[in-house]
Amino acid sequence: MALNADDEDYNWEPPTEAEMKVIQARRERQDKISKLMGDYLLKGYKMLGECCDECGTILLQDKQKKNYCVACQELDSDIDKDNPALNPQAALSQVRERQLASSLQGNHAEPGTAHSDPSPSATVQPRPEHCEGAASGLRTAPFAIPNSTLSSSVLASSSPPLPANGPVPVFLNSSPPGAPSHSALDCAEDVLLQKLQWATRELQQSNSVENSIQLCNLLRSCAESLRSIKELQQL
Amino acid sequence: MNGSHPVDISILVQVAETLESIVSRCFGPHGGLVLFTKATGELLITRDGQKILSSLLLEQPIAKIIVHSAVAHCHVTGDGTKSFILLLAALLRGLRVMVMRETTRSTGRHGQHGLQLKLLSDHLLAFQTQVLDHIVRCHLRQCASSLFLSDRDCKVTRSNAKLLLEAYFYGKVGANHCQSLSTLACDYYLKCTGGDQCNEVVGFICDHFEELHTKVVGIPSSSSRILEGLVLHRDFTEYWPTEEELKILVITEPLQPPLVDASATLYLQSDQQLQSSCAWIHQRVQEILSRLSVSGVRLILSSVKQTDLVLYHAKLNRISVVECMDPEELSLFCSISGAAPVSPWDIFLDQPTHLAQAQFCKSILLGAHRYAHVGITSKSLCPQYCIVLCGPVSGLTIQCASAFHGAFKMLRQTLQPLESRYGPHETSENIELQNGIDCVVSSINVCPAEGEAYGGTDRVEQPRQCLARNLIPGGMHHSEPLHFHSCHVKEECCGDKLLEPHCTCNIGDATSIMKRTIELNAKSTGDNSLVINAQIDLIPSPTREEECLCTLIAPGSVFPVGGSFELLLHYHLLKYASHCLDPGTKAVCNLVANALLSIPRNIYTAGKSTRHFLHVYTKAMRDIQSEGRVRDGPKMLESVSCKYQLLISTLECMRSLICIDCFIVGTRRVSPPASP
Question: Annotated region Disordered: where (chain A) (predicted)?
Fold first, then answer.
């Protein structure tokens, strides 16, 4: 099989740390999916012969004959956790990255001090990190730009119905007491408006009740987030 | 949904991993139980792999194939469903890595994997036929111990049987019932067979286990016991207790002659005719039963319901009757006792023959049911005992009964010799083997060719040729000589002893030559010299040598539990792969060697930590390198042929899975074409 194994092996380099993390995360995700599927099978669900169109996981069917994809509906997908419209932590980390990038360009501050002191400039107040994602977003400031472009492109192209995230309006309401820079809020507002438009288009085309309900939830949370941003801007 | 679904390696891995996640919770001696909610809503708490897998609702064809193969394997060996799934998942995972690596390397994108998989299945077949058999024959056979007392005496010792059965039940029913069930199984085996290696009896027990055991619910499991004779799972309709010897009649038709046959028509012209017909019938029945009573029949076993008239007369004649018996039970009874079903007309016309002989016949109360208990005098080798298995709840009792059944299937598999299905063959790829046997054979081979070099005459050459011919069993290994070995032998051959002419192979000198080469080999390769001596012993009797070629695993071979078979095979496979030149075989050897570790890993992993397993693994590798066997393991034993069969079944299942390209789902049943 591997007839030219020896030649290729000389060119092989060990995977970098980032790649290792991705590999590890993917493996853990697969393990989680298998465990969840095993649990459902033991509860009496049926394993079907079809695969999910979006993620390729095998579908399960419960006793009410409803199809169920474990990966899409229970686990957050790989890319969705970077999507600021869905995940409050991602939105927060995106805001923070923008601030850091603008402050870096302005002050040439060391990114190394970022993780010990989360406020390189006076405009951003220190705040306890709610998640690893936000903290690492601050730490790896140089990588912030490609990440955000990736997530925004994903935003534009993703079509699956997005599950409603309850905490979005709650989180943005507990915004910092100081006045954040306007660019970040405008950015967030633009993104939310885009999302709103997209969701409206999807709602028009949607045929299934489940999809429509989820899209309506998304619209509601976008509107609430917009309201909180407007309040922030007025402050 | 109709349509064709392509099958990719990732789907195979997904299905296998899902089944693995279910099965690994209850695997091994420390595994737990699984709570399963069936489609009907009832709960099932079990750790029996076969039960769990058969109860899952699976419409995915791949999953159905895997479960079907696992269950079929379990039918033969009595165990191994969970190990099957674990091994298969590990193999498929390793396969996916190989295939992904290959596609990204060759095309730079994820192209079609089908071709790689087909090539791999060919390599797998070559692996099974050439490499696996060879390694088992050369390396694993000598590490296995035997259940029997010695080679000649094929008696199974009680302690060995106990160790084997204890390990089995530990994995099957857990620590609670392990001791009691293993003692019971051991006693039953020894009672039925007398300790001799009796494959027919064990086979008979396996085939008729349903009828040979009785499940009793509601009594603590410590009341399980062995009973003499046979318990018939029906109560007496008429019961007359007898303690002395009696004869038993087996009948499959009603004793009372019918008023009219099914195909005939009776024309009655008056009431008197009807009454006279009935009176005739009465008289016949009376005569039949009095004849039976006279010939000593005290029990009638009937598979149909007898009429009240028959029962009344049986009561008058003090004959017990059991009706509506199961046909399987009745046939078992006939095969054990040597009786045959009798027709009523035979009784009437002639002295009834084919009666069964019994020592006693009584009623027995087991749990909430009353059964007939008959003590049969058996002429054949059939077992004359039956088992009563008790349990507090029906689920537990059923589990214990199936575990018991599986134990005897495992015993049957262990006590049979396992033949190599591929036969001895010539392998030109064994050239690189640093195997002690091959090296020695090759060194003897060299001498005739270089006979001239040290001034050898024909007289010197001949002994070498004799030796060479006898030592190469069936022309199996045509290894090329390695020069440094041959040089050493050449020096030794110049000794005086060998210049004497020998035309026939003299064992004494053969051993002396071999001993010298053994010492040299021991220094150079560190191989076990015991192996060589065993080969020499075989020389005078070539027939036994040929026999040894075909029998891969001797009957009664056992290994200590805890993964020693897997670790040993892993070590030898890796060693073979490092010397192998063919890349396909090398890749497959590495794949199988790494997948084999999944079983001991699951046994020794407590929670998430693999520390214990790594500790065991390093120690085992060290022991194998130094001594050739795994030391200091648990004392309990497991069967080699069952383990080997497991590996073969898994490899074959995997081969059949990776050759599937896509499956087509239809909603309508495909009917066979109508015959013209």
Answer: 93-133
